[in-house]
Design a protein that fits this description.
The complex is a heterodimer of chains A (about 325) and B (about 400). By secondary structure, chain A is of the alpha+beta class. Chain A contains 12 helices and 8 strands. Chain A has helices spanning about 5, 15-25, 80-95, 100-105, 110-115, 130-145, 150-155, 170-180, 185-190, 210-230, 240-265, 300-310; strands spanning about 40-50, 55-65, 70-80, 160, 165, 265-275, 280-290, 315-320. Chain A has a 3-stranded antiparallel β-sheet with strand order 1-2-3, with helices on one face. In chain A, strand 7, helix 12 and strand 8 (about 315-320) form a beta-alpha-beta unit. The longest helix of chain A is centred in the C-terminal third of the chain and has 22 residues, at about 240-265. Helices cover about 40% and strands about 15% of the residues of chain B. Chain B contains 13 helices and 13 strands. In chain B, helix 6 links the parallel strand 5 (about 145-150) and strand 6. The radius of gyration of chain B is 21 Å and the shape is globular. The chains are: A alpha+beta (about 325), B alpha/beta (about 400). The interface of A and B includes residues 48 and 188 of A.
């Protein structure tokens, strides 16, 4: 919360002119008739994504040259808000002239970027990002139809959020591509969790196989491990030099642990790192408010331990000195 | 037609008479009513008059309190938090508060907060008409447990009117305090506290052609209440902070005008609303939510199949017509509106719902214009829409 957040209600003012123009006058809405595809080396693909009951639904039409796999023409129909219309319009435009494989590389961020007026100014606010994700999803659907990776394969895809039909892969992808850090952000980008909320964490009205909180923690941990890897150019934390280990741990404390403690006037420092058999023990000492806090040895310690396990690996333990 | 304002459940135009009156208390008579000198003196009498207008307008008796505050949100918070702090946490014999599941966020989210503080909150469901009935209330009410019941008089989104008189009467018979958020009722339907035995009632001036930033909390004689804001001794120690004098005086006149022109609301505004609603019903695949006879005379909540609510609001805005949408798409939280969820309507309708709310300033030709452009807007969006 800061000055820019105090006067709410801003939504339509935040759309780029490109978005507004396409909302008002979309160029590529419409259909492609079977007659148009009725020629040699031509194939019509009609892909549906979303549902009206979820607030967004898009139908993508492709006319594909089967010799070169090139998308000759793309059209769309959309049930959705203005940004869904604009995203669909730019998505159809981006598809045209590309091969199906090239089109598959278009991400939701490409759609959003193509809607910008200037390079550094977002075209749509975060809560509208799911519209661009929908454009990305429908391309995937169209490509799978074209490639004959048929419905059975699509249904094998793990769906995390049934209400918004968001797959496990989509959730993992948006976390990675957009560097998302909270469930709220995932919801904004994909709509997963925006409806019944059952897929956010256990305890909703429906039991789920995957929960957004778990997926987020898992993907973030993977990303952090990759970061540690690339930083140390070593395989695992265990294989790092003591200096690199210390630096990696310090960084995790600076970025992920200390800010939480600072909020309550506390602090912590890393005193030592020691191996005990298979385990790596991180010895810590509390400072400030934490030094006298009753929860420092219980809740706070287990939070620190959890962060270390998620970012470094399961065989790392935090211990008070 | 330049612009047409059909979002009067969000806020209203200040009546020009009210606006003119307020000016005097901004640049000329700007004294603090708690001052002893002439500047203080000259505002107290007009404030007395405004208070008279409010008491008369609501049918309050002189032994009751009408605490002037900042807005209805403040009034709702004052009542709910008083019961939390003083009754539930301090006394602790009754732990539960009952509210309806279709309350405005100023009650709904406050109740959610109370829950985090240890209160047990029961959210009353609505019936198939979208209404909380006395029978529903009786089912959930437990005189041993319930510290307070709060049910709105009329719903902000659907305009549906709740049987507050019956519910308040029943609560009184079993000795449970009853609060109502009457923001959407005042100026639209009769609100007479001689007739309706509510114990607490909140209202806000800007919903009945008064200014923003001023409201009131009615507390019936003998009912307990404490301040939400502590500080000076304004409002009999029940609401600290220098009174917004121009707002207060403006609110008094706005109440007077709203009550004296209530007949117009019940006839003229209703006729215009009905005309618009009938024209909508002539468009294909339109659903109107809530039976007409159960709604305030100024409100329509309509769903246009195949057309997402925010997209239609955008389209109408291009024509200069201001309406509002409960569409999840337009809110930052992306949450489907809890009122529509509670009404258990088809989820696709909740994404297509649009609210049209009129006022006594809405003119006949404005409605003609809206009817004309609405058809065009719906037609264009249905052309783009997937299944239409």
């Amino acid at each position: 919360m800061a000055k820019k957040d105090l006067i709410g209600g801003k939504l339509w003012e935040t759309y780029s002119n490109n978005v507004i123009e396409r909302m008002n006058n979309p160029t590529y809405f419409g259909e492609i008739s079977p007659e148009e595809a009725d020629a040699e080396d031509r194939r019509l693909i009609v892909a549906d994504w979303g549902a009206e009951s979820c607030g967004d639904a898009v139908r993508l039409f492709w006319l594909v040259d089967t010799k070169s796999d090139t998308i000759l023409k793309a059209r769309f129909k959309t049930f959705g808000c203005g940004t869904a219309i604009a995203s669909s319009d730019v998505m159809a435009e981006l598809c045209m002239g590309k091969t199906v494989d090239e089109a598959l590389k278009i991400t939701n961020l490409d759609v959003e970027k193509a809607l910008r007026d200037t390079e550094d100014q977002a075209a749509i606010p975060p809560q509208k990002m799911h519209c661009s994700v929908m454009a990305y999803d429908v391309i995937k659907k169209a490509a799978s139809l074209y490639k004959g990776v048929e419905m059975e394969d699509l249904e094998e895809e793990e769906i995390v959020c049934e209400c918004a039909r968001v797959s496990l892969k989509t959730v993992k992808d948006v976390i990675r591509i957009n560097d998302l850090k909270s469930v709220e952000e995932i919801t904004r980008y994909t709509k997963a969790g925006a409806f019944c909320g059952s897929c956010i964490r256990p305890g909703g009205h429906e039991k789920r196989k995957y929960y957004l909180e778990d997926i987020l923690a898992e993907v973030r941990a993977e990303m952090d491990r990759e970061k540690i890897k690339s930083r140390g150019s070593l395989e695992t934390f265990e294989e790092m030099s003591p200096i690199a280990q210390y630096k990696a741990i310090e960084k995790i404390f600076e970025e992920k642990i200390k800010p939480i403690l600072h909020r309550d006037g506390g602090d912590v420092e890393v005193m030592d790192i020691k191996k005990e058999g298979e385990e790596t023990i991180i010895f810590i000492r509390y400072l400030g408010g934490c030094a006298t806090c009753a929860a420092a040895g219980t809740g706070t310690l287990s939070m620190i331990d959890q962060v270390l396990k998620e970012t470094v690996g399961p065989r790392v333990t935090a211990r008070m000195i | 037609m330049e612009r047409v304002y059909l979002d009067n459940n969000a806020t209203t135009m200040v009546d020009p008479q009210v606006s003119a009156l307020m000016k005097e208390f901004e640049t000329e008579k700007y004294g603090n009513p708690n001052s002893l000198h002439s500047y203080g003196m000259e505002v107290r009498q007009p404030m007395e008059k405004a208070l008279d207008q409010l008491y008369k307008g609501l049918g309050a008796s002189d032994e009751d309190n009408i605490i002037i505050n900042g807005c209805a949100t403040e009034g709702n918070n004052t009542v709910l938090k008083y019961y939390l702090f003083d009754q539930i946490l301090k006394k602790g014999d009754k732990k539960s508060i009952i509210v309806s599941s279709v309350e405005h966020p100023s009650v709904y989210n406050t109740a959610k907060y109370l829950e985090t503080m240890g209160a047990r909150v029961i959210f009353l469901p609505v019936n198939e008409d979208g209404i909380v009935t006395l029978d529903i209330l009786k089912e959930y009410l437990n005189p041993e447990e319930t510290a307070l019941v709060s049910v709105m008089w009329a719903n902000n989104e659907t305009g549906l009117i709740f049987p507050v008189k019956e519910m308040a009467g029943y609560c009184r018979s079993v000795g449970i305090p009853f609060h109502t958020d009457a923001v959407q009722a005042i100026g639209k339907i009769p609100v007479d506290l001689q007739e309706v035995p509510v114990d607490y009632l909140t209202f806000s001036a800007h919903k009945f052609h008064g200014p923003k930033g001023i409201g009131g909390l009615y507390v019936r004689k003998g009912m307990p209440i404490g301040p939400l804001l502590h500080g000076g001794e304004q409002m009999g120690n029940l609401r600290a902070g220098t009174v917004n004098v121009p707002g207060f005086i403006g609110m008094g006149l706005a109440m007077d005008l709203a009550v004296s022109q209530l007949d117009r609301e019940l006839t003229q505004v209703r006729a215009l609303r009905d005309r618009l609603e009938d024209a909508m019903a002539h468009l294909p695949d339109v659903s109107i939510l809530g039976k007409r006879e159960l709604r305030t005379p100024n409100t329509i909540l309509a769903s246009f199949k195949g057309v997402e609510g925010e997209a239609l609001a955008w389209e109408l805005n291009k024509f200069g017509v201001a309406v509002s949408t409960g569409s999840a798409c337009a809110s930052e939280s992306l949450e489907t509106d809890h009122t529509l969820v509670a009404m258990n309507i088809d989820p696709s309708l909740s994404h297509t719902a649009l609210r049209f709310s009129l006022s006594r300033f809405t003119r006949d030709e404005e409605i003609s214009y809206v009817i004309e452009v609405l058809g065009k807007a719906v037609e264009r969006l249905r052309k783009i829409s997937i299944d239409y």
